[in-house]
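From the methods appendix. Each design record in this collection lists the tokenized structure first, followed by the designed amino acid sequence. Records were kept in a plain field format so they could be parsed without special tools. The example shown here is representative of the layout used throughout.

RECORD:
FOLD TOKENS (202 positions):
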């Protein structure tokens, strides 16, 4: 499982980048938002990845932030949302905007993405609303009144774990975000879940 690449940006295309890691070029599919965040050709880059293994191929999809990767995983678990559609959604919407749209049932916002019609947008809302917690305004608030959402590598897994234990989406989201803020983005899943459980139980 390739979870992250750290190297030099060799080149970019309309929907991909090539990352040179020790002389090996990795072709990584990506959203337009991630491609724009990578910087200039030749610069050092770190990109979070998801490895897709099929019967006849192995592909990498890359993300500038772990938060985007977490959303990609959530989106591709929705029936009818493949890799291409998930990347189109992440190209059209920031993770914060997507979180708000799903939490508030704003299917029109999600349908702004290429390849997403009203029916698919509604399905995305229906299937993800209970998994992602309250709208961002309900989470811990940072500077400027912007909500702090769980964004690290294991955020989605930790949220799922707490909800499976019976915590409400809003409670789980708030607890995981608080635990992540205390432990940092590199915390292990086990540590994140343990601390989030303590915070949610208070």
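DESIGN:
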């Amino acid at each position: 499982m390739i979870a992250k690449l750290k190297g030099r940006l060799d080149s970019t295309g309309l929907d991909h980048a090539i990352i040179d890691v020790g002389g090996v070029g990795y072709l990584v599919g990506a959203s337009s938002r991630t491609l724009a965040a990578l910087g200039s050709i030749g610069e050092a880059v770190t990109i979070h990845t998801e490895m897709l293994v099929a019967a006849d191929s192995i592909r990498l999809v890359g993300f500038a932030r772990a938060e985007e990767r977490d959303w990609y995983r959530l989106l591709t678990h929705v029936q009818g949302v493949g890799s291409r559609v998930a990347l189109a959604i992440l190209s059209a919407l920031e993770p914060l905007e997507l979180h708000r749209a799903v939490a508030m049932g704003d299917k029109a916002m999600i349908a702004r993405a290429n390849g997403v019609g009203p029916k698919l947008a509604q399905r995305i809302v229906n299937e993800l609303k209970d998994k992602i917690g309250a709208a961002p305004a309900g989470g811990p608030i940072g500077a400027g009144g912007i909500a702090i959402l769980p964004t690290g590598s294991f955020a989605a897994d930790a949220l799922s774990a707490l909800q499976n234990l019976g915590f409400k989406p809003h409670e789980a989201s708030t607890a995981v975000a608080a635990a992540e803020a205390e432990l940092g983005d590199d915390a292990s899943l086990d540590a994140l879940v343990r601390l989030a459980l303590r915070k949610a139980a208070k």
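APPENDIX NOTE: The first strand starts at residue 4 and ends at 12.
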